[in-house]
Amino acid sequence: MDQSLEVKAGSRKLAIERLRDFFVASVDAAAASETPFYHLVLDRVFPDDFYAAMLANMPDASDYRPMHGRSKGHDLADGTHTRVKIDLFPEYIRHLTPEKRAVWDVVGRALCSTAVRDAFVRRLAPGLVRRFGDRYADVGMFPIPVLTRDIPGYLITPHTDTKWKGITVQLYLPRDRSTAHIGTIFHKKLADGMLAKDKQMTFAPNSGYAFAVGTDTWHSADRIGDEVKTRDSILLTYFVDAGALRYLRNRGKRLGNFIGSELRNLLP
């Protein structure tokens, strides 16, 4: 790993800042598209050597916990969860080995930075204006970065994200392009109200996409086949953080998830 990105105790602050700045530059350089809704296509999100370190320090299967929400309805017949996660907050990753914790702590802190949030708000302005109006930049956004893992059998049907969310970002983490066909699908609504597949993201290493959540941001994922071992990615979701209800809800969810995570780690 390049010296400037070494993740040692004495260099953590520098590593976070440099990763943050690299990520902001990637967001600023991302290609924008208007169809079927305004979105960004991200490329080379992380420095190459840091991306390699992330892949080398992926958590063990036992480190993940079930993902709730829509994905819970797609568990296998034997109860196996097809999507699991690890929240990339310090209090969640503290049970990882020191080497893995060092890497993912830097990733989580960099993604939660104000500079990264502001970059997404700046680049996704057309979509945010449609929802929040001209004062979109004043709307609070609460970041939650989650490392997710999908296995064969996982799928999610076309949907728009909940109104609690303001921005959705997914960062793909494959080792190569052998499963490029399992990227997220974007849909457009036809005149008769039916949904049609418009385009599909390429599940390529160190890439991703982002969009401002709206009533037209229909997206899905086809069922993952047996040719796929795992579909690893980071979901960086910005929850709307305006008003007392949302403010308390966002922090309450983080606290509740932490308690659940701790209880899980106490069980044999």
Give an overview in words.
The protein has 268 residues and is an alpha+beta fold. The chain has a single domain, classed as Jelly Rolls (Sandwich), CATH 2.60.120. The chain has helices spanning 12-29, 48-56, 90-93, 98-111, 114-123, 125-132, 244-266, and strands at residues 31-33, 39-43, 65-66, 83-87, 141-150, 156-159, 165-172, 185-189, 195-200, 207-212, 219-221, 231-240. The strands form two sheets. Strands 1-2-10-7-12-5-4-3 form an eight-stranded antiparallel sheet. A four-stranded antiparallel sheet has the order 6-11-8-9, with no helix packed on it. Helix 1 packs across helix 4 and helix 1 runs parallel beside helix 5 (114-123). The longest helix is centred in the last third of the chain and has 23 residues, at 244-266. Mean pLDDT is 90; it is low at 1-5.
Strand content: 25-35%
CATH superfamily: q2cbj1_9rhob like domain
User: Could you tell me the mean pLDDT?
Assistant: 90
Into which percent range does the helicity of residues fall?
25-40%
Amino- and carboxy-terminal Cα gap: 36 Å
How many discrete domains? 1
Arrangement of strands in the largest sheet: 1-2-10-7-12-5-4-3
What sequence of helices (H) and strands (E) makes up the elements? HEEHEEHHHHEEEEEEEEH
